[in-house]
């Protein structure tokens, strides 16, 4: 009966909460969930070695697949693991670069990124599409079975395109129905990993203004010891009072001395032998990926790139990756002791091969160490700013500026701070907004709207853009105009102002000179823009359009020298930025 009851409970959860239930069930399973599928092989014919693992912590996102090494070389052959059809092709100077999507009849989709080339019928389609539409970058979905793929078919070559930091293949397996990405290792891809994860740091954090850790209302790095705190007794024991939570910095290496610090499969925190928190990411939806900022010690990550996964769970974070075994939602992931005893805490960290590393530390509770403070609850911060509730829509309205924030954009009840300062570099004052307590980036974009100043000439109206200012960094937002207002989405808090962009992009030759002989295989120019960014480009060789490939990493446009004929050739590049400033330059190249 217990087994039957468990089955119906899981079925009920899967019906009511399909995404979360599916994640929880998968996290407890292994590759046997996918037994009988053909995805237990690597798409490249090299021994499997990973420079990046699934769900590793990256800036503002989880890593969505495996990074398979290709011996530092481009051009390794990529094979389809199963029958299917090409459902999407995406080519960009950024992100995944050249990306291929294959949808399979068993409900899965495989994705291949940073490719250097597409093969066979796929390559012919890409070539014809680019030349027919006079574009390099595009993102299209293809009709079912318009390009069929067979198991074992050569479909592409590996490369280093897009945001890749070096030659490799980024490989994903997704559910085709909703593009939920799954850890490919659950399908049984063979690889070696005899090394257990490394625990590089453990921290304790006070949860409330009156909480204390070793007598102070500030976080404590318990392990490894600091230079000024390296005695054994202080290294593994702390005194606490009030609510607190824990954090761990850990990573996995597949071989001793490996350079890469890959992510781990599972983190568990036990208090006096009882599991109170588990962190694991067997799969996720892409709209959930920015929740990584709520799961880690974000300020620490910004400073050092050390990703401490924390045990506390913020209420506006709706993912199921970080599970606290506590029915009290308001205290989920927080720890409170009601005695004056010493308690044993243990972190257990596992990789996908079930190699385990653990670290034990102790916490002595001392209720007399509570700090004098009249504010205990997170919701009672009312000293400055405007109250924002994580599950409600919020709109800030100021003179010449407004910000509209949708529910679940912030992760916890907070205060939205606002200030306005004069600016000589911009056409308007800088309107700065931020969070008072939880200084985390928003989970999703919010809308900023600004009124155009009255003194702007009509011929310059289309050259205006909203910029976001954070410290020394100023970035233009994708701005639209409606009458006398500008609107733009922003994925970060900061200062917002209107700026004028009248400076055209620049084009500089990289490997050729005007009216000189050229013997190379690629003709390259460096392109740049001061603010709104290059959004379109084209190249003419002797008056005919030729494909120019945009490499975002090097900020170059590259065309094949095969497009040149012997003798004198006239080559013209034309680029424009996001507000319509255009630059066109021509050179004469002599091919012998």
What does it look like?
Helices cover 9% and strands 41% of the residues. With 592 residues, it is mainly beta. Strands 1, 4, 5, 6, 7, 8, 9, 10, 11, 12, 13 and 21 form a twelve-stranded antiparallel beta sheet that branches. A hairpin with a 5-residue loop joins strand 24 and strand 25 (356-365). The protein is globular. The termini are far apart.
Number of helices: 6
The CATH architecture of the largest domain: Distorted Sandwich
Could you tell me the mean pLDDT?
A: 88
CATH class of the largest domain: Mainly Beta
Terminal Cα separation, in Å? 84 Å
Rg, alpha carbons: 27 Å
Low-confidence stretches: 1-32, 228-234, 374-382
Helix residue percentage? under 10%
* Annotation, overall tally of beta strands: 45
Described by the principal axes of the CA atoms, the overall outline is globular
Sheet-strand content, in percent, reads 35-45%
- Sheet having the most strands: 12 strands, antiparallel
CATH fold descriptor of the largest domain: Coagulation Factor XIII, Chain A, domain 1
Instruction: Give the domain tally.
Output: 5
- Which secondary-structure class do the elements indicate? mainly beta
List keywords for this structure.
7-stranded mixed sheet, 6 helices, 592 residues, Glucose Permease (Domain IIA), 12-stranded antiparallel sheet
Describe the structure concisely.
By secondary structure, this protein is mainly β. Helices cover 9% and strands 41% of the residues. The chain has 6 helices and 45 strands.
């Amino acid at each position: 009966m217990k087994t039957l009851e468990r089955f119906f409970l899981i079925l009920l959860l899967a019906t009511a909460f399909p995404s979360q239930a599916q994640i929880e069930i998968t996290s407890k399973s292994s590759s046997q969930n996918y037994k009988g599928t053909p995805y237990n092989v690597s798409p490249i014919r090299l021994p499997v070695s990973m420079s990046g693992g699934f769900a590793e912590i990256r800036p503002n996102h989880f890593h969505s697949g495996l990074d398979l090494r290709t011996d530092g070389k481009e051009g390794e052959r990529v094979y389809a693991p199963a029958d299917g059809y090409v459902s999407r092709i995406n080519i960009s100077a950024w992100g995944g670069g050249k990306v291929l999507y294959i949808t399979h009849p068993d409900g899965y989709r495989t994705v291949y990124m940073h490719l250097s080339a597409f093969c066979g019928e796929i390559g012919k389609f890409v070539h014809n599409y680019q030349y027919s539409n006079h574009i390099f970058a595009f993102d299209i979905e293809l009709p079912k079975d318009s390009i069929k793929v067979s198991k074992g078919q050569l479909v592409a070559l590996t490369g280093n395109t897009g945001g890749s930091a070096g030659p490799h293949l980024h490989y994903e397996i997704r559910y085709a129905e909703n593009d939920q990405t799954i850890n490919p290792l659950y399908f049984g891809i063979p690889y070696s990993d005899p090394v257990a994860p490394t625990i590089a740091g453990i921290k304790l954090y006070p949860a409330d203004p009156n909480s204390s850790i070793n007598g102070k209302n500030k976080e404590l790095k318990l392990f490894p010891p600091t230079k000024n705190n390296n005695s054994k007794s202080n290294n593994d024991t702390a005194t606490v009072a009030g609510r607190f939570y824990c954090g761990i910095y850990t990573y996995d290496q597949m071989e001793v001395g490996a350079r890469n610090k890959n992510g781990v499969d599972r983190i568990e925190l036990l208090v006096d032998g009882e599991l109170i928190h588990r962190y694991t990411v067997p799969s996720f939806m892409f709209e959930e990926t920015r929740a990584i900022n709520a799961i880690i010690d974000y300020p620490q990550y910004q400073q050092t790139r050390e990703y401490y996964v924390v045990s506390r769970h913020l209420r506006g974070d709706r993912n199921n990756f970080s599970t606290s075994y506590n029915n009290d939602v308001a205290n989920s992931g927080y720890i409170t002791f009601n005695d004056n005893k010493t308690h044993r805490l243990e972190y257990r960290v596992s990789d996908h091969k079930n190699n385990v590393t653990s670290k034990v530390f102790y916490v002595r509770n001392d209720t007399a160490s509570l700090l004098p403070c009249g504010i205990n609850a997170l919701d009672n911060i009312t000293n400055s700013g405007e109250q924002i509730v994580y599950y409600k829509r919020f709109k800030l309205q100021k003179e010449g500026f407004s910000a509209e924030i949708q529910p679940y954009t912030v992760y916890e009840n907070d205060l939205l701070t606002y200030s306005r300062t004069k600016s000589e570099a911009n056409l308007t004052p800088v309107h700065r907004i931020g969070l008072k307590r939880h200084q985390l980036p928003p989970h999703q974009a919010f809308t900023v709207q600004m009124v155009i100043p009255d003194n702007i000439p009509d011929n310059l109206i289309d050259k205006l853009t909203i910029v976001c200012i954070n410290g020394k960094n100023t970035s233009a937002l994708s701005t639209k105009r409606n009458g006398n207002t500008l609107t733009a989405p922003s994925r970060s808090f900061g200062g917002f102002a209107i700026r004028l962009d009248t400076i055209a992009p620049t084009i500089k030759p990289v490997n050729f000179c005007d009216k000189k002989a050229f013997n190379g295989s690629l003709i390259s120019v460096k392109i740049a823009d001061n603010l709104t960014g290059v959004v379109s480009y084209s190249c003419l060789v002797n008056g005919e359009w030729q494909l120019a490939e945009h490499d975002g990493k090097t900020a170059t446009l590259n065309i094949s020298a095969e497009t040149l004929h012997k003798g004198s050739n006239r080559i013209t590049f034309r680029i424009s930025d996001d507000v319509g400033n255009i630059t066109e330059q021509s050179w004469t190249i002599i091919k012998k």
